[in-house]
Amino acid sequence: MKTKKLLNKVIYFLLLLICVQATIAQINIDTINSQNYKLDTSLLKDANNTYLVYFTDSTKTKKMGADNIWERSIKKEKYQNNDSFKFDWKWISNDEIIKQTSNRCDGKTLAPISHFSINKTPNNSEIKAYKFENGFMIKDKNEINNSVSDDFKLKMNIPVLNWELDIETYSLLPIKKVGQIFEISFFDVNQSQPKYQRYEVIGEDSLEISGSKKLACWLLKINYDEKNSAIYWLTKEKNEMMKCEEKVAMKKGYIYCFKIKQ
Fold first, then answer.
1. I need a surface site. Which of 90, 123, 164, 168 has the fewest CB within 10 A?
2. CB within 8 A of 194, min separation 6: which ones?
3. Could you count the other beta carbons within 10 Å of the beta carbon of residue 195?
4. Would you tell me how many other CB atoms lie within 10 Å of the CB of residue 22?
5. Please, what's the largest Cα pairwise distance for the chain?
6. Which segments of the chain does DSSP mark as H helices, in order?
């Protein structure tokens, strides 16, 4: 009888411990979306930034292919009498633009308003243009040569943020300490369904730039899945992304993609 009572107490204690740990974990998760106003968009200023993008083998010592350049810009402007941000991104390889996007977002919440992209290949160019209206992503029928089907309609089941603006969005995160977890409603227009993406502040680092100069940085990590991940170096002063190290799984082994602010 005493053994049974003791066993019940142990089981009760373990269940209680699990509940407490789950509650603590839940408290430490900070949800970020385009509805809860946790992003201070007043910190976003008109800017033009350039990033060097290149790939290496798994040892991070041997470069693969040509260097690429990302040119990204932010501009605050009026749209239909409301404040908005216009984000432009050019991906340049071998002195040619291979991808170009333009995204417009709400000036207070960063809720997406429209998306336009051109993907270029040696023999073709594909245009995709969308509007975000009444909780849905639909085809922008005002855009000529839009390859999106006329009946396309995808429900935004969460208040999404545009994943193509991740670098700019990181600068607005309320990072305070190592161990913070953010569930961010990043959505890529090529996804079949919106969902939250989990990021964690995994550490701190002193990033060397321009010779002897060093910047104190937070390390922000996302695991896309079991094999693919990315770590971002964000300055402690402004959460500005200075470096990204992305691990990309291949059929045999993996490679790395680096993005370095110039």
1. 123
2. 156, 157, 158, 160, 185, 187
3. 13
4. 10
5. 81
6. 2-27, 166-170
Distance CA 200, CA 183 (A): 9
Q: Tens of pLDDT along 30-59?
A: 999 999 999 999 999 999 999 999 999 999
Model-level pTM?
0.88
Q: What is the pLDDT of residues 64-98, one digit of tens each?
A: 999 999 999 999 999 999 999 999 999 999 999 99
The answer to whether the CB of 77 falls within 8 A of the CB of 86 is: yes
- CB of 240 closer than 8 Å to CB of 45: no
* CA angle, residues 99, 104, 105, in degrees to nearest 5: 130
User: CA-CA distance, 39 to 2, in Å (whole number)?
Assistant: 56
Measured distance CA(255)–CA(28) in Å, rounded:
32
Q: Which two tokens stand for residue 236?
A: 């402690």
